[in-house]
């Protein structure tokens, strides 16, 4: 028997450390080669670390949420044969956890001690209380099912009942609602921590200026409908996004300062030739921003297909790090939840973000009467350090014009 | 006889009815109790109390008879029994308790009317038939009419075919006794007669005795019956009685007397309950958690309301109903009703049996490892605890063993108070007593048993 140490591999792109976000094994588990041991999180993506050997897990290298340097021991396995480190070596690190004893599988095996009070009561379970407490509760009109018990197994004492009554728990004839004094501790780890850091950075460093403008969408919607009808059989349906991307590509052609990344440490703005459009995407783990690279080179359908592919990959977690980085401008949309206006936060170190709000029919005065029109607002934020309000307003007006007269999206000049 | 008007009329002076009456009297409610027999009902007159007297006499006789064969070095001559004197002693105890109950009711200013009640309507009852009979009008009426033994069509009561009440009035121990029905009543009396010298055979239709209890609990009772020379015919159907034999599908059984104990039915017929059209629950009167029937102002308690048909359940119901009528905030919220079989050994069951509730486990402690049990020559049996896995709340406690009926109080107390295994484990139990087995069963459940 030997000890085999599995170290955190070099995940690439110059990453020096990674955050441990999930253990797939625990001490005592038997793992085979290529079984997943743990998931770690780098700046952008979660990476699963497979086992390089077969054996029994004897030690885990860290706790969830801990930052592990690349090359540090992730898991120690007890393996047949020599292993890759001596017992003595292993002992110089953390003391190895004792191998877990298999639990005796007898019917009358001792059970774990009960949890400390107050104990949550499952639905339909009668509360535990002595007959005198029950009698007093009835006299006082208290429904004991609502009263938190602090005794063993959640038993309700006279003191619990006193506290309940003193806190005004009695509501004669009404529904009695228990105060929920529980506080759940949720550790901000993994992707949530990345999002938190990124948002804080953007808000701390970037003085945002946000402009909201309304856009009449009837023409674009007609065009979209016609295109979708024409290619219904052969091509995927177009959403609004590829049109918006095209509008952004056209707009930044005239205002390259908006398609940029601002290295504020060095004091340099990198104006990119290619338009790499980030698409803010909700995933089960949280907000993710996959990037449509070189949107200026793609057709409407190319971009549509790329958006669909990236969104799917982001949601199922198979997205690559490279696909989550390198954006030069970002679109954020909440679809039907998009409200009237939003204040989008710029995806640092970019300098502009285009938010689209929900589309709805609104009355518009045409000079003589109100007309029902398909209207949509756009809410765009800019880095006011490098973009003046004038430039921002010009950009927004350009977007409005392009979207309201979609032919201009496709006609040169 | 003048008619009576009162606030509360109770039909039946059994343990449910008389307790209800005493409590109501204490609460200042104008109360009348009607019963055609003596106060105390089945329990006091022909059930619990006389059977315990008989069991005690049988145990004493049996001990003396067996003493020369035992290990204690006691020598006696062959004892003889004047059974008529035994029965007279038993009747004396019953009489004492009759007058005791009467005195308690009188003290509570409860009026007792002897006679048979019959409903005229939901507020009016006639005594001893309609027409010229006495009329009692009451604001509230409590039906506590109890239950009666079930008769088998092939074995009509009369002559050698006895009810349990009749068996306790015999003046001679029968040579041979067949007991039809291996429930607790048949086994208690059958065992007593076996100890008094009768050749006893028990015919039970189910595949084992005490079919309402789990196998683990009944096994020590089976073993003891065997040791006492009682023959148990399991899965046997009684078919009739002829020529001094009980006919069964497993052959004839010599029986001077046949005791039929195949259950009890609620006594609802003949008192006009049908006319009230109260909602039934099978043959029983359906009640809510205040013991109210489907008709306003009419309550029902005890055996007429269904299983478990136990005197102490009826008493608790009676007490609660009196308080409910007095306007107190009460409700039936009992967690456990202990049940005891005064067989040999005794069986106690309180709360949930193993496996009855999902998410529970059980552990037991054998009396073989209990010093007091060994020192009393009775090491058969065990104490078993059932607890909820999630929080160790005790859901049930059962025991089988000689004299364990007295442990039933601590079982019920533990469950009613909402005790956890740790509570009982941390309570000092006196040494040397059988009660230590409960302590040890709980410790065992926690993986900390000391004496096993």
What descriptive keywords fit this protein?
heterodimer; A: 413 residues; alpha+beta; OB fold (Dihydrolipoamide Acetyltransferase, E2P); Chloramphenicol Acetyltransferase; 3 domains; 26% helix; extended; B: 452 residues; alpha/beta; FAD/NAD(P)-binding domain; seven-stranded mixed beta sheet; five-stranded parallel beta sheet; 24 strands; globular
Q: Regions of chain A with pLDDT < 50 over 5+ consecutive residues?
A: 87-117
How far apart the termini of chain A lie comes to 75 Å
Low-confidence stretches of chain B: none
- Corresponding CATH superfamily of the largest domain in chain B: FAD/NAD(P)-binding domain
Fraction of residues in helix of chain A: 25-40%
What is the CATH top level name of the largest domain in chain B?
A: Alpha Beta
Per DSSP, the total helix count of chain B is 13
Mind describing the biggest β-sheet of chain A?
A: 6 strands, mixed
Q: C-alpha Rg of chain B, in Å?
A: 23 Å
Question: How would a crystallographer describe the biggest sheet of chain B?
Answer: 7 strands, mixed
State mean pLDDT of chain B (0 to 100 scale).
95
Strand order of the largest sheet of chain A: 9-18-17-16-12-15
Order of helices and strands of chain A: EEEEEEEEHHHHEHHEEEEEEHEEEHH
Count of strand segments of chain A: 18
Quickly give the structural class of chain B: alpha/beta
Shape of chain B: globular
- The number of distinct structural domains of chain A comes to 3
Provide the β-strand percentage band of chain A.
15-25%
Helical amount of chain B:
25-40%
Question: Can you walk me through this structure?
Answer:
The complex is a heterodimer of chains A (413) and B (452). Chain A has 413 residues and is α+β, with helices and mostly antiparallel strands. Chain A folds into 3 domains: 2-92, RNA polymerase II/Efflux pump adaptor protein, barrel-sandwich hybrid domain (OB fold (Dihydrolipoamide Acetyltransferase, E2P), Beta Barrel); 131-166, Dihydrolipoamide Transferase (Irregular); 191-410, 2-Layer Sandwich (Chloramphenicol Acetyltransferase), CATH 3.30.559. In chain A, 26% of the residues lie in helices and 25% in strands. Chain A contains 9 helices and 18 strands. In chain A, strands 9-18-17-16-12-15 form a 6-stranded mixed sheet, with helices on one face. Chain A has a 4-stranded antiparallel sheet with strand order 1-8-6-3, with no helix packed on it. A 4-stranded antiparallel sheet of chain A has the order 5-4-2-7, with no helix packed on it. In chain A, a hairpin with a 4-residue loop joins strand 10 and strand 11. Mean pLDDT of chain A is 84; it is low at 87-117. Chain B is α/β, with parallel strands linked by helices and 452 residues long. Chain B has 3 domains: 4-149 and 265-325, FAD/NAD(P)-binding domain, CATH 3.50.50.60; 161-261, FAD/NAD(P)-binding domain; 339-445, 2-Layer Sandwich (Enolase-like, domain 1), CATH 3.30.390. Chain B has 13 helices and 24 strands. Chain B has helices at 15-26, 41-46, 48-66, 83-107, 164-167, 184-195, 215-227, 273-276, 311-325, 371-375, 408-416, 421-425, 436-445, and strands spanning 4-11, 31-35, 111-114, 117-121, 124-127, 134-143, 147-149, 161-162, 176-180, 199-204, 231-234, 238-242, 245-248, 251-254, 257-260, 264-266, 280-281, 284-285, 298-300, 339-341, 346-351, 360-366, 382-388, 394-401. The longest helix of chain B has 25 residues, at 83-107. The N and C termini of chain B lie far apart (69 Å). The chains are: A alpha+beta (413), B alpha/beta (452). At the A-B interface, helix 2 of A face loops of B.
